Amino acid sequence: MASRAEARIQNEAKLALKRIELSNRQFAMLLALPVILFLVMVMAYPMGYAIWLSMQEVSFFGGFRTSFVGIENYREALYSDNFWWSVRVTVQFVSVSVVLAMLIGLGLALLMHRVRRGRALLGTIIILPWSMSLYGAGVMWQYLARGQSGVASSLINRMLGRTTPDTAVEYSLISSEQIVNLLALGNAWNLAPLVAFFLLANLKTIPERLYDLARVDRLNIWQRFLNVTLPPLQYTLFVFTTITLILSMKLLDFIFVMSAGGPGDASATLTFRLFDLAFRQSNYGLSAAISFYLLFLIIGSALALFFFWGRRLEDT
Amino acid sequence: MSGIEITNLRKSFGNVKAIEEMTLTIPNGVFCVILGPSGCGKSTMLNCVAGLEDVTSGTIKIGGRDVTNLPPHARDIAMVFQSSLLYPHLTALQNVRMSLKNSDTGAVEAKRRIDHAVGILEIASVLDKKPGAMSGGQRQRVAMAKAIVRNPTAFLMDEPLAALDAALRQSLRPELAALQRQLGTTTIFVTHDQVEAMTLGDLIVVMNDGRVEQIGTPDEIYNNPATKFVAAFIGSPPMNFFEGQVEDLNNGPALRTQYGPIAIPRHLFDRMGGRAHSLGVRPQHIDINRTKTDGSIPGTVFAIENLGKESVIILHDTAGHDYRVLVGPDHGYSVGESTYMCPDLSQAHLF
Amino acid sequence: MRRTSLSLGLAALVAVIWTLLPIYWILKTAFIAPVDAVAFPAPLWPSNPHFAAVHNIFGFGYTDADGREFLPAGQSKQVINGLKNSVIVAFFVTIITLLIIVPLSYAFARFEFRGKTALLMAILFSVAVPPVSTLIPFYILFVKLGLTGTALGLIIINLTITVPFVTWMLIGYFRNLPAVEPLARVDGFSRLSTLIFIVIPMARSGIAVAAIVSFLFAWNEFVFATQLVNGTPAATLPTAVSGFLFLQPQPGLLSASLWISIIPAALVAFFLQRHIAEMNLVEPVK
Ligand SMILES: Nc1ncnc2c1ncn2[C@@H]1O[C@H](COP(=O)(O)OP(=O)(O)OP(=O)(O)O)[C@@H](O)[C@H]1O
Ligand SMILES: [Mg+2]
Q1: Where are the beta strands (DSSP E) in chain C?
Q2: ipTM of this predicted structure
Q3: Residues 219-248 of A with CB under 8 A from B
Q4: Confidence class for position A17, pLDDT limits 50, 70, 90
Q5: B54 lines ligand 1 (CB under 6 A)
Q6: CATH number of the domain located at residue range(s) C76-280 in this protein
């Protein structure tokens, strides 16, 4: 009698168990499923459409009409000087951006790590550029760099005592030769805080003992930095080099606002070029084709970073 | 009434057999310690009892009730995890409350139990602290409080003291034993520390490689080790082993070693027969002399560890095997000396 | 000791100037009288603070001490409307992003399941796709669906950026949290209630960072907004501000509208810096 009641209880418990206790896999799929659908919707559709578009010639005579041209757009891009110029500009912009963002970010992180008093205030100030929109940053940097409103004209003329418009001379920081570097500097200004804060989180995990050890071993500041501080940061540095690289390659708003690809096409990165092709020249096909070259460039350089750097970190 | 009964428990992860076969009955109110080296399946076994892992086969009964297929919460157990895991974002009090949150304990009863546990474990002063701000000992007490407010049929503890320093561990051990005795709750306590096992356990289960090597009281485990593994694992300094072949010679049974035969008491030989090939003797049951006597084994003093009241002399034989001998403080030996070991055969074990 | 704290102070000063100069340089213009704002060379600071621009931008007239009158800015309606739209878009983007990514990144961090690597790769891939490449397809799709010029369209498109980026951030964070799941199971929580009642409260720092990052992204988004909602009632603040961009005679108004878009971001940044320092991503790479 008792055992039958017991068996029933057991049975019910088993059923209840079945109802609430999903397997890990089922539970994970339950959580991930909406996102998979979302991703398919928002990634697969536009990518598919872009692939289709990149093989069309779009004309606007008598409404929006397209005709299939195969890989013609891809070929046209490769034969165009503008395209190769934009590749060059992009590579320069991205490499300078990444180097500056990582160095400045590391510097800011070390600074915040050392500072004791006023840390919250310093942190708030340092993160400001990152909270700023890229178009806002573009406006600011343009305003700062231009001859008319810029800081260079203001300071130099003031030092030379020339304070009236007719005596003062314009000093613009914007020139065809330097515009890409200036853009990269502004971009690094925007990205460095992100790098700095994640590095700071990482720095906090380095045990103080290691610094004591370094003192016992009489390492100088530079040796201490190389042997104690830097090694545990490597993974974060790698991750953020990859992130700043990708973000810089994708960047449009900042360039759009600050230099609009100019002067001339001195700062026409690939993103600017394909925006211009699509929205100013309505050359959708070519723009879509170039966007795939850009995508390959992004993924290719991220993978290259992984193979030459990230993978080595995994081995150790 | 029985405490915990485990019958033919098996557990594999894919093709890794974590527990090959285990049958164990723990009487009600007994403090049972599961002892074994790292990776032998102790945690896996405990997780099966707790219901955190599904068993591959076998049954588990707690308080006479078959719980094999019940979720952890329905098993009427409380668990203390490795390093006394607590919710890091909750205060001590909130952590303790979590134990009762999903049970049908009324508010009044819950408060009574919590007050009681706080009193027993003396944690009133840390109730508002988060685990990050507590010492290791305080965390351990809070984890215990969290366990006892459940009023469970069984406590399951997975190396709760492992992360603490030696001094703290030593002071918490008797407290834990006293608490368990006071509550009289059947307890399974997992550890790889033999001192912890010997001092806490009413019953010790020695595990190795997913199998039970021996089940017994601390006395039985120490004085009558069932296997060579148990003999070597329990006791500090560890037991010495003389290897060779056991034979029944004309003048009685003996272990034939490269240094000549060592005579073996008849009762030992009768139990093991000719299958044995090593003779185990604890360090305190070996005498050393500077002169050779009948059946003694030569060894060179390799190192001497002074423990204050006594010393451990570590000897090497010609093949480089270690032997440890416990001697009084004024032994007079020095490193490099040649000596002879005389095992006390009445205290020896055959494996 | 003295020397190190001196050089530390100096370094802090350099960092602060580097950070604030570009912001300061334009924001000061909001407090300079419109005539002086276009003066050449530009003044280094507002020597006679003047509040015409900050009034005009909100649609109020202003009469200064000299009796000069300044009319409300023609774009003030757009700015205020943009502010409202930006709040709506940023709010919903933040909420929806969190609803999606918290369970997702938790599942990725804690469970092994088939297809996990492929999914992770898909998410990483979508982080790498430049928004300009998906702009045209989305534009065409949105025209067909009637979503151009709507806040809904903008919310959807913002999600395509925030979801992958923030998921990726949170996975590392969740992995570093202590594995309290068995504890929660013994305490009688199902997997779902463990997530809701234990893991989410435990992970609030990381989730706060995720929320702030999503909020900032949506608040600041410009490329999609100019194409999808510019000039419509759904225009957000950045597009409204861009209306001043090339109105050179009135940098004061541009500056004042930038103040509006920067203040919320700066407030949010204050909270961000408190939480973000706990986001250690480092983990043994698998
Ligand atoms: N989830 C799992 N998946 C696969 N194998 C596992 C899993 N959990 C444990 N194992 C394996 O089962 C065996 C026993 O592991 P278990 O954790 O029980 O050891 P343990 O005795 O508790 O060791 P320790 O003292 O290190 O905690 C090990 O070989 C381990 O690798
Ligand atoms: Mg274990």
Answers
A1: 62-63, 69-70
A2: 0.82
A3: none
A4: very low
A5: no
A6: 1.10.3720.10
